[in-house]
Amino acid sequence: MKLNAVNTFLALSLMSWSTASCWANAPFNQANQLPESVAKAIKKSGIPGQSISISVDKISYQNQQGPLFTTQKLIHWQENSPMNPASTMKLVTSLAAMEVLGPQYRWKTDLLTNGKIQNGLLKGDLLIRGSGDPKLIPEEINKMLLNLQSMGVKKIDGNLSLDRSAYESSVKETSFSDGEPTRAYNVAPDALLFAFNSFSFQFYPNTQNDVVVIKQTPRMANFKIDNNLKIVEGPCLDWRKDINMSLTQSTNGSWVALFDGAYPSGCQNATWNVVASDSDSFFIQSFIAAWEDIGGTWVKKPILKTHDPKSEFKPIVAHLGVPLYESVKDINKFSNNVMARQVMLTMALEKTGKPSNTNNSMKIIKEWLISRQLNMPELVIENGSGLSRIERISSQHLNQILLLGLNSRSKDYFLESLPIAGFDGTMRHRLLDKFRKYVPNKKEVTALQSNTANFPNSLKKYGAFIKTGSLVDVRCISGYVVSRSGHVYAVTSFINDPNARNGRGIHDEVLSWLLDDGPIHQNNKAH
User: Fold this and answer.
1) CA atoms within a 13 Å half-sphere pointing along the CA-CB vector of 311
2) If you ran DSSP here, which 8-state letter would residue 390 be given?
């Protein structure tokens, strides 16, 4: 090693050591400092400080002209660094969608025909045209078909066509690949996305008869389960490891799901979601079964026909899906990737009136940010879900999104969509011990009620309301914390490092410090 290289190495080592030391000793409220408990958690994790970005702002209500809520910076550790946010990017997508489209926006799925209805018979083909409804689930298809039935239709004599032209084919492209194409989190966007294009298998062991009952949704015509599972004694840990599963489709369109192996008795029930390789057949066979389930009949078994855009079809049923805010709740509570992507694409579809693509959707989000006086030069949006190797945002700017959300007309829907630590969503198992042990005293209850009086109802209670994000080398949190005495904080923390999986303790310590009024105690000590 050359002398200059040695000197550089030693200088960097000393810089790293001195930085770690000053975390514990310097006053908390100065730039680029971390509280002692967080610094210790970082040291314990083995993750270098330069792989971490943390922003914490105290939120205050102001009773004057301008925004209702403002912030005061508390921690800004490397907060300007562009970082991969993983699923916390969904906060940007979901808030933008509610502001651009309105929280009550509803997707439309149309039924059209080239035939006529006479004496209870629909003589002609059916065309199903999608607009990207992210929650077109079996219950919604049933409502659509009940509307058709209410028009007097009892039998259908015709074939089926699908219209997915609301999206360009490029929307299925992505930089992300983890070698798991059949896993539900990897489902690609689809203008006629039905039931997340996934089979859901539910397992119910019957130990008395030594059998495992397997149920499947959505119900499909020409679908069979070949169940050869045996129950074995054991806990419900990695329950899928001893099960072989295959899903095959024959040339006539029928499906067979084969299960072999051992199912542990400790699993009272479990669910296995598998992506369908043929989305056309998945939709058509489900549609056929749904019509039969409400008492409708087919004169002959319908087949899938390629839709000719020049053919004349007239609309007969326009089905409106669930409101956008309900989809936003699923997106953020349960970190649903494909729903986030569909929501992002919908903005471009509605604003341009043309088949949607990711580039147009990204432009609309950036224009929305500029209209709110937010300039984020480092922002990279690939698909809006965070399931990406290239998406980037700084922790400082994601905190600004949190402040924008609190000042938004959609703030109640936005806040209600966040997972609650120790209670639900992706945060349901986090900080459980802390919440179980906490018993508020009278002084804290009074302070909490007073300090949160002007905040939305969701932030009038002690807790952490946090969107999580994770990839193999990424761990992130972003959201709001309401402390014991009712101080409200916006917090975003990113870890981008090969050892990011060790970073949960860092994030939990940041949240715990805020829950315990850490900034207030620290400032009192400083004085």
Assistant:
1) 17
2) S
- In 3D space, the residue among 13, 20, 26, 16 whose CA is nearest the CA of residue 526 turns out to be 26
pLDDT one-digit tens code per residue, 385-402: 999 999 999 999 999 999
Q: pLDDT-derived band of residue 311, with 50, 70 and 90 as boundaries?
A: confident
Please, how many CA atoms are within 13 Å of residue 240, restricted to the half-sphere of its CB? Answer: 9
In the predicted structure, residue 2 carries a pLDDT above the cut 50: no
Would you put residue 425 in left (φ > 0), alpha (ψ -120 to 50) or beta? left
- Domain residue extents for the chain: 31-103+327-520, 106-323
CA pair distance 257, 214, nearest whole angstrom: 10
Q: Measured between alpha carbons, how far is residue 55 from residues 31, 39, 234, 313 in Å?
A: 11, 14, 44, 54
Is residue 74 within 8 Å of residue 57, measured between CB atoms? yes
Q: Are 126 and 161 in contact (CB under 8 A)?
A: yes
Instruction: Look at residue 40 and tell me whether its pLDDT is greater than 90.
Output: yes
Which sign, positive or negative, has the C-alpha torsion 89, 91, 96, 97? positive
How many Cα neighbours within 13 Å face the side chain of 180? Answer: 8
Residue of 255, 140, 134, 137 lying closest to 188 (CA atoms): 134
The topology under which CATH files domain 31-103+327-520 is Beta-lactamase (3.40.710)
What does the pLDDT read at residue 12? 32
Helix axes 395-406, 90-101, angle to 10 degrees: 40
Q: How far apart are CA 195 and CA 198, in angstroms?
A: 6
| pLDDT at residue 392, as a whole number | 98
pLDDT of residue 6: 32
Are 127 and 115 in contact, with CB atoms under 8 Å apart? no
User: Residue 502 contacts by C-beta under 8 Å, 6 or more apart in sequence?
Assistant: 45, 46, 47
Question: Are 469 and 386 within 8 A, CB to CB?
Answer: yes
